[in-house]
From TrEMBL:
PANTHER family for the chain: ALPHA-1,2-GLUCOSYLTRANSFERASE ALG10 (PTHR12989), DOL-P-GLC:GLC(2)MAN(9)GLCNAC(2)-PP-DOL ALPHA-1,2-GLUCOSYLTRANSFERASE-RELATED (PTHR12989:SF10)
EC number assigned by the record: 2.4.1.256
Reactions listed under catalytic activity: an alpha-D-Glc-(1->3)-alpha-D-Glc-(1->3)-alpha-D-Man-(1->2)-alpha-D-Man-(1->2)-alpha-D-Man-(1->3)-[alpha-D-Man-(1->2)-alpha-D-Man-(1->3)-[alpha-D-Man-(1->2)-alpha-D-Man-(1->6)]-alpha-D-Man-(1->6)]-beta-D-Man-(1->4)-beta-D-GlcNAc-(1->4)-alpha-D-GlcNAc-diphospho-di-trans,poly-cis-dolichol + a di-trans,poly-cis-dolichyl beta-D-glucosyl phosphate = a alpha-D-Glc-(1->2)-alpha-D-Glc-(1->3)-alpha-D-Glc-(1->3)-alpha-D-Man-(1->2)-alpha-D-Man-(1->2)-alpha-D-Man-(1->3)-[alpha-D-Man-(1->2)-alpha-D-Man-(1->3)-[alpha-D-Man-(1->2)-alpha-D-Man-(1->6)]-alpha-D-Man-(1->6)]-beta-D-Man-(1->4)-beta-D-GlcNAc-(1->4)-alpha-D-GlcNAc-diphospho-di-trans,poly-cis-dolichol + a di-trans,poly-cis-dolichyl phosphate + H(+)
Residue spans crossing the bilayer: 181-211, 248-265, 285-304, 325-345, 365-384, 396-418, 438-461
Protein name, as recorded: Dol-P-Glc:Glc(2)Man(9)GlcNAc(2)-PP-Dol alpha-1,2-glucosyltransferase
Natural source organism: Coccomyxa viridis
Length: 477
């Protein structure tokens, strides 16, 4: 009885802490939102398409669709009633300040602040679930790191699909980990309605559910090599097929329906397909690895991690498996060189749009000299080793790590455009499943992210410039 009371008390304290954190995040977000409303109140970039489409939905016009929009209308269907509800409440609180347009840009943007608070809470809960032996303070720091990711943070204050897309896929994952499979499927549908490639992450979540079911009765199987572990999972799943079909059919229906949509539609993008043609862009995987190591430099570039890499290399060269290790890394180096040579692709948007930081990365580095792109080869190889090492020591069995790698490849390789926003979900999944960083490492990362976010927001709001067509332009990712 005393133990139950203690558990209930801890649960209540945890729920109170989560609610408090969510309120603080929302209030802090409201302050930054006020700055955006003051210095950048007008719709900008992709908002030029998202805002008018949502305003049509607000007026009850569901017939017209802007052919330039590439995603499903999940954001609009959620934001339109939200903005109308906010406008209705404001008309009672401050009727003299009520605007004619219920779904104004400012109100529509504010939904992402609430979604960002939910994103923070979900990261907390997922990390606690996946790493139950790690303290709650570490989970909170990890959630802070995820929230402050500089290439994602800015979009919590603009009317973009990014925050909702990652929030709902995390909500689906948490529901599935709690064995609420049909709820997870429903949330997965919403996630796909925000961004189509989330169908791949629903498939990853489905695979995780199958994996957990197959390994929960035989914990020794988690330590098997990849091929034996996969065989064990396949055999266990076949024996348990009736339960799997009954429990997971709704999750499986999502990637199946999406595959059918892609075949019917002739591609992933809903509109503007001329600029979103699927390609083989293998370098996206290496960019993701480098991006992950750069963002988590406190972990991956720490002196002890670099020394460990050197130690592993020496052991591989001098040990009895030297030949195998050299062939493995030689093959990986050869693949990386071939990809750099033949798959370093530049989308026309990347070359022409100087409002994005990637334009300057390309112009001032990759395009300076034909050999410049090869200088990063050693970092690509180190990043591959370091990220793999962190994941193998994390919460996923080796088959799950391979599944995470596969999902990342499927979402990134077909994308022609180099856009750091495409890395958000893969990065968050790596952050969730890798061996947790120390509190010092997580705190250092959060501190660096705060500094980077302050600079990015300052430049966006207070350093606009005139574009070639005379319009106001702002720097962003």
């Amino acid at each position: 009885m005393a133990q139950q009371t203690g558990n209930r008390s801890r649960s209540l304290r945890q729920e109170s802490s989560v609610a408090f954190d969510a309120v603080i995040i929302t209030l802090a977000g409201a302050i930054v939102t006020a700055l955006f409303q003051r210095y950048a109140p007008d719709a900008y970039m992709d908002e030029w398409f998202h805002v008018p489409q949502t305003q049509r939905y607000c007026r009850g016009d569901f017939q017209h669709w802007d052919p330039k929009i590439t995603t499903f209308p999940g954001l609009y269907l959620l934001a339109a009633p939200y903005a109308r509800a906010v406008a209705y409440l404001q008309s009672y609180v401050a009727p003299e300040g009520a605007e004619q347009e219920a779904c104004s840009t400012g109100r529509l943007r504010s939904i992402n602040v609430l979604l960002a608070a939910a994103y923070f809470v979900l990261m907390q809960q997922l990390h606690r679930r996946l790493h139950p032996h790690t303290g709650g303070e570490t989970a909170t720091l990890i959630a802070v790191v995820a929230l402050l990711l500089p290439t994602h943070f800015l979009y919590a204050f603009l009317y973009y699909t990014d925050v909702g897309a990652v929030t709902f896929i995390l909500a689906s994952y948490l529901a599935v980990l709690h064995e609420r499979y049909h709820l997870g499927a429903l949330l997965g549908v919403v996630a796909v309605a925000f961004r189509q490639t989330n169908a791949v992450w629903v498939a990853f979540i489905l695979g995780t559910a199958v994996l957990n079911r197959a390994l929960e009765r035989d914990m020794q199987a988690r330590r098997l090599p990849a091929e034996k572990q996969l065989l064990h999972v396949l055999c266990a799943s076949w024996r348990d097929k009736a339960w799997l079909v009954k429990s997971l059919w709704s999750l499986a229906a999502i990637p199946a329906a999406f595959a059918a949509f892609v075949l019917w539609n002739g591609g992933v993008a809903v509109g503007d397909r001329a600029h979103h043609v699927p390609v083989l862009h293998f370098m996206q995987v290496f960019y993701l690895l480098l991006f992950t190591v750069g963002c988590l430099a406190a972990v991956h570039l720490a002196p002890d991690r670099v020394q460990l890499a050197a130690l592993h290399l020496r052991r591989a060269v001098r040990g009895g498996h030297a030949g195998k290790a050299l062939r493995l890394w030689g093959s990986l180096a050869g693949i990386a060189w071939y990809c750099v040579q033949h798959y370093t692709l530049a989308h026309p948007f990347l070359l022409a749009d100087n409002r994005h930081y990637t334009f300057y990365l390309w112009k001032d580095f990759f395009a300076v000299h034909p050999g410049a792109k090869f200088t990063l080869l050693p970092m690509y190889l180190y990043s591959a080793w370091s990220v793999w090492h962190s994941l193998i020591e994390g919460s996923l069995p080796v088959v799950g790590v391979l599944g995470l790698c596969t999902a990342s490849c499927l979402t990134l390789i077909p994308a022609w455009l180099l856009d750091f926003r495409y890395f958000t979900v893969p990065f968050v999944m790596v952050l969730l499943h890798m061996k947790p960083p120390t509190r010092l490492q997580a705190g250092m990362t959060a501190g660096l992210f705060v500094l980077a976010d302050a600079i990015v927001v300052y430049i966006f709001l207070l350093r606009p410039f005139k574009w070639h067509d005379g319009s106001i332009a702002r720097f962003m990712f």
